[in-house]
Automatic annotation (TrEMBL):
<dbReference type="Pfam" id="PF13853">
    <property type="entry name" value="7tm_4"/>
</dbReference>
<feature type="transmembrane region" description="Helical">
    <location>
        <begin position="239"/>
        <end position="258"/>
    </location>
</feature>
<keyword id="KW-1003">Cell membrane</keyword>
<feature type="transmembrane region" description="Helical">
    <location>
        <begin position="31"/>
        <end position="53"/>
    </location>
</feature>
<keyword id="KW-0325">Glycoprotein</keyword>
<dbReference type="GO" id="GO:0004930">
    <property type="term" value="F:G protein-coupled receptor activity"/>
</dbReference>
<keyword id="KW-1133">Transmembrane helix</keyword>
<keyword id="KW-0716">Sensory transduction</keyword>
<keyword id="KW-1015">Disulfide bond</keyword>
<dbReference type="InterPro" id="IPR050939">
    <property type="entry name" value="Olfactory_GPCR1"/>
</dbReference>
<feature type="transmembrane region" description="Helical">
    <location>
        <begin position="278"/>
        <end position="298"/>
    </location>
</feature>
<feature type="domain" description="G-protein coupled receptors family 1 profile">
    <location>
        <begin position="46"/>
        <end position="296"/>
    </location>
</feature>
<dbReference type="InterPro" id="IPR017452">
    <property type="entry name" value="GPCR_Rhodpsn_7TM"/>
</dbReference>
<dbReference type="GO" id="GO:0004984">
    <property type="term" value="F:olfactory receptor activity"/>
</dbReference>
<keyword id="KW-0552">Olfaction</keyword>
<feature type="transmembrane region" description="Helical">
    <location>
        <begin position="107"/>
        <end position="125"/>
    </location>
</feature>
<keyword id="KW-0472">Membrane</keyword>
Length: 320
């Protein structure tokens, strides 16, 4: 389909559909699509396993495991909003997406991004209370209080994304082309027939308020944890505390790492081409959601133990 033909399919304020062109220059699209499909499958398998184990085992209905369950739900939502689009483009060769499907996936994608960040903050709060005040942990962070905190994070995410989506929906779209690999706010703004610069202010303010504040909180929580660890009387206790935090450190690094790299490159004046920008975007979307369930399945004793029990039962049943 030519560029002139693509420009035909729009109606005044909003186009009826967009065409995803972010992969057009790639020569091995099927291979990339297969890798994204496998990654998406592993995310669903890992996060779904964590959710099933935690929900079905009442002994795991404690704040730490409920937070892991919440993170798994967010990971599935976050990854689904983008992976389905990329798989459709790369494997099914369906490059078009309706306007309302695109803007709804944009909403879900950024909602997942925001709630993932706040979920990591709640997990940092959980570890801080558990290590700093272990004797009062169960009286401070009860399940009802935790449910209120989790609900608050979702409500904040829904509200923030309502504002951002309303702004994107108000823009006039005169070309039905998404030059990136899925629908997100920057892609939608750049597809509109407006100067995009004024429309970066709102997401910058919201991002600084939501994601920036959570990042600072997580850093401060680890400063407090380091101070607490240094006051412990022996190395064995320090190692034990570190082991309780290592999972969270890994998932926080996988989430903020690509964002910090992107921000740092921008600050020092490095201009990424479209391919490099899309690669970083895919990594920032899929990497955390793949690492999170893997880390918590392998490093969390109770989940690992429960998983081994389930696999052992199935193996015994097959042998019989």
């Amino acid at each position: 389909m030519s560029f002139s033909e693509l420009l035909v399919n729009f109606t005044g304020k909003n186009v009826e559909e967009f065409t995803i062109t972010g992969f057009d220059h790639l020569s091995h699209q099927k291979l990339l699509g297969f890798l994204i499909f496998i990654t998406y499958f592993l995310v669903l398998l890992g996060s779904g396993t964590n959710i099933c184990i935690i929900v079905t085992d009442r002994r795991l209905h404690t704040p730490m495991y409920l937070l892991i369950c919440n993170l798994a739900v967010v990971d599935i939502m976050f990854t689904t909003s983008t992976s389905t689009t990329m798989i459709s483009v790369l494997l099914a060769e369906v490059k078009t997406i309706s306007y309302y499907s695109c803007i709804s996936r944009m909403y879900i994608y950024h909602l997942g991004d925001i709630t993932e960040c706040m979920a990591l903050s709640l997990m940092a709060l959980d570890r801080t209370i558990a290590i700093s005040t272990p004797l009062r942990y169960h009286s401070i962070l009860t399940n009802p209080r935790l449910f209120l905190l989790i609900t608050a994070t979702w409500l904040i995410g829904l509200g923030v994304m309502g504002v951002l989506t309303a702004q994107a929906d108000s823009l006039p779209y005169c070309q039905p082309i998404i030059r990136y690999v899925f629908c997100d706010y920057p892609a939608m703004v750049r597809a509109a027939c407006v100067n995009p610069e004024p429309y970066w202010m709102l997401p910058a303010i919201l991002g600084l308020w939501v994601i920036g504040a959570q990042f600072i909180f997580i850093l401060l929580s680890y400063v407090n944890l380091i101070y607490t660890v240094l006051r412990l009387p022996n190395n064995e206790s320090r190692v034990q505390v570190f082991n309780t935090c290592i999972c969270h450190i890994i998932v926080v690094s996988s989430y903020f790492g690509p964002k910090l790299v992107s921000g740092l490159l921008t600050r020092i004046g490095v201009r990424l081409n479209l391919t490099e920008r899309n690669a970083l975007l895919i990594m920032a979307t899929l990497l955390p959601s793949l690492i999170n369930p893997t880390v918590y399945c392998l490093k969390t004793k109770e989940i690992r133990k429960r998983l081994v029990q389930i696999l052992s039962r199935k193996r015994t049943a097959v042998m019989k």
